[in-house]
Each structure stands twice: as C-alpha cells, then as structure tokens.
Amino acid sequence: MMISGRILALLCLSFPIAVRAEPRKPNVILIMADDLGWGDTGYNGNKVIRTPHLDEMAAQGLRMDRFYSASAVCSPTRASCLTGRNPYRTGVFSANVGILRPEEITLPEILRQHGYATGHFGKWHLGTLTAERKDANRGKPGNTRDFNPPRKHGYDACFVTESKVPTWDPMRVPAKFRKGESLKMGWEPLEPGRESVAYGTRYWDIDGEPVSDNLAGDDSRVIMDRVLPFIDRAKEAEKSFLAVVWFHAPHLPCVAGPEYQILYKDHPLETRNYAGCITALDEQVGRLRKHLAKLGIADDTMIWFCSDNGPEGKANGRNGSAGTFRGRKRDLLEGGIRVPGLLVWPAKIREARATSIPCVTSDYLPTVLDAAGIPYPDTRRHLDGVSLMPLIDGTMEKRGKPIGFLIADRFAVQDDDFKILGTSRGMSQLYQIAADPGENRDLSGDQPDAFATRVSLFRSWLTSVHDSFEGAEYGRESNERMKQAWPRPCERMAR
Q1: Is the pLDDT of residue 19 over 70?
Q2: Residue 159 to residue 201: CA distance in whole angstroms
Q3: Pick from 110, 219, 262, 375: CA 20 to 30 A from residue 281's CA?
C-alpha cells in the first residue's frame, strides 16, 4: 500500500525519528603541584601535613603508586604533560633552558580544534611571557628568543607567571628580612604595616597584559579564583573544557598565611610555611571539586593530580619528603621522579583502586585523546606516553612500553619490572623496582641477562630520541631562532 507524502509527514511529527547525539567529550583538569614529594600527602603516609581533599581523591578514584614525572626538574616535566613526548624531544632540557617549541603539537591545540575551551592557570615555565620588560628569570626587553606564551600553544585563556612566586602574597617580598627568614626559603606572612617590595614577576593574561587585581593572600586561591570562572564560561557555552592548573606550592620560597601557620604552630617556620602552603593548595582542590559538583559536571570531569618532580633540597626533617625512596629533585633515583599520582573521574572510576603499573606525565596526552575519541594528528611523530584508558577500564595488566629519563649526563629507563640507572660514562646499576623500590640492591652483576635486555631497551629508546633532535620531525625554524646547541646525552650509548 502506498503512503502519501502528507500522511508520512504526519507520522514523522507524531513519532519523531531518534537521532543519536554524539557523546559529550569529558572535561579535563590537569593539576600539578611544584616540588611536592611523594611522601608529602596524608594518603601516602605523612603524619604532619594535612591534605584531606587529596586524601579524599585517593579514597574515591585511581591511586597510581608508581606515577612518574618525566624529568627530575620542573620545565621538562611540564613539556611532557602537554605533548605526550619525552622532554628531550621537545627542546626543553632543564628548568629555564630552551622553550616548548611552537612546532610541537600540544594537547590544548588538539582539543581546541575539537571544540574544547582551553585554559592555563598558575605556573608556565615553558618560555617567557614578555619581551618588553624585566620579568622573572628570563623575561626582559628585547628577548624575543625565549618569548613563548601559552597563546602560541592552543590556549584561549590564561592567568600565568613565567616561573616561581612566593606562595602567599605572590607579588611581594619583605623589604627587610628578620631572623630565620630568607629570599630563598621564605618568611613570615606580611602583616599590615610591614614594608615590602615587588618580588620581580607578574601574572599575565592571554593578551599578554599584566594582571593587577586580586593578587593578595594565598597564591593557590588566587589561581583558583581564575579557574572557576573559566569553567563557568565553558559550561554556559556548552563546551567541554581543558583546564591546566599548575600551582606554585610548595616551590620555594614557601610562605603560608596566618590561618595555615596556626595549624602547624608547634613546628619551626620552615615547616609551618611548607606544610601550610600544601594545606592551602589542598583546600583549593576541595573548592574545585565542590564547584564541579554544584554545576552538575563532576561525573564527566577527569581530574588528574601530580607533582613535577621530587622534593627540593636535602632532607632535614622540616621540608619535603620523598617517603621511603632514595633521592630528591634533580635525581633519577625514585625519590626524584616518583611523585603523587591521582585520577578522579566518577563516570568511569566508580570504586577506589590502586595500581602499581608504571605511569608517567607523558601519558596524559594519549589518554585524554583516547577518552575523547580524538586521534593524534601526526603519526610521524614519536609519542613516549601510552593511553591509560585500559588501566582506567581495569583491563591493563602491564604497561609494556618502557619509560625513559634524561637529565644532564644521567639517564634511567624502566619497564614493568626493572630499572637501569647510569651516566654518560656507562650503565652501572640495575634495580628490580617492584621488589626493591628503595633501590638498595644493584642486580647488574647478579642478573646479567636481565641487565643486557635493559641495555638493549635503553639503546633502542635513546636512538629514537636522538632521531627527534633539532626539529627532525618538523623542521628547524625555532631551532635556528633559539641558536642553542641541542645536547646529546649518552650519545655513545645509542650506537
């Protein structure tokens, strides 16, 4: 029987044809502390520092007990977070050395092309933010070589400093120091009437303008005051968002406000400031999570938390803790690169879990793209990270792919079981990390076959890193602008 067009139209109005809407892509928040040691959180066993909101994340989400920063210092790890690549591929070799090359493909660039709102808040440390005035470590008039703000890397909003700031009243420093205070370590919070001077850096917006309002008090709160409105705007525009939140705490100089000082009143100033600024950071993590819940978007939001490297300085009982691990910041021992690692994503992680599978900051990009169903746009470029979606789904039993580290003339590479550690003069140590996380027993002489296997693994990985040097994957334009020799650590080991 034939159905007239008029009848068919009426039927369609009465019984609408179901249209499958594209699943909403998850929101992504990448939170990073600065110089926070593995042992500086309550959930990792710290008995002094109060971190109730991070402890709650650990009790609700995925706790990654072998989570690594891609380097033992700040800037290189940050480059890995945004690119999915080992820092030596990206031209970021150490803190204040090199810049994140404009030719690198970054996570915010990819996500913005797929409709995300993208914002960066807090520390940048991947280049300078001005070429017109003196600012922080490298910003100065005429320095266009290192000028490399977030807007060149896919962000449409930012509130950033080039590098470190005091963790309380971030733009100010006492005009005169009292006993027990110092420019490097920190000072008592500035009380009314105490003379102060500019610290020497600024917060900058996406247009390259310095920000002058709402900069007093706790620095982590100052940062979060910009993050929450960004999230509000994204929700109002019905956009998924990427918010990269890189806190300055607890990088020196640490200063904690009066309400945090009182929590640790029985401790010396160094501990009061260090622990206090971590608790202040933790408070802002809780504030963020509460805000997401209020907006009704907590379930669909991935919140990652980590540190950029291990704790600063020598352990003295008053500063950061690497837990039971040997080494600290600048070391490739576990204490320098194993850091707190958490993920909360209620839509996918419904029960708390802990994993000892190795993960690294380079895994952020491939994991987020996998979660959002977005392919990486250039298969010619080498990614060092892997997607952790199988881990999130509960189906990953081993990492499979090794994690390599380079800093100065030192290297390390580890797989699921073993880690080799050495210098440019040759490989000297082999540890079975799962059984010996304290790296107390060198097995290089006892297990020659395992050692030889990891030597081969390292050489293969290092060769692939060298193949990326000097813009081999995307040309030499920024390399020529930088006029900077590209270091080749452990080069003879790659032969």
Answers
A1: no
A2: 13
A3: 110
For domain 27-393, the question of CATH label 3.40.50.740 is answered with no
Contacts within 8 Å (CB) and 24+ apart, 374-378:
374/25, 374/110, 374/111, 374/114, 376/84, 376/105, 376/110, 377/105, 377/110, 378/105, 378/473
Residue type, 427: M
Residue closest to 72 by CA, chosen among 371, 367, 319, 403: 403
Tokens standing for 63? 């706790």
pLDDT, tens digit (0-9, with 9 covering 90-100), for 173-231:
999 999 999 999 999 999 999 999 999 999 999 999 999 999 999 999 999 999 999 99
Rounded to the nearest 5 percent, the helix, strand and coil shares of the chain are: 30, 20, 50
Question: Cβ(271)–Cβ(259) under 8 Å?
Answer: no
Strands, E assignment, 247-339: 301-307
pLDDT of 1 > 60? The answer is: no
The CATH fold assigned to 403-494 is Arylsulfatase, C-terminal domain (3.30.1120)
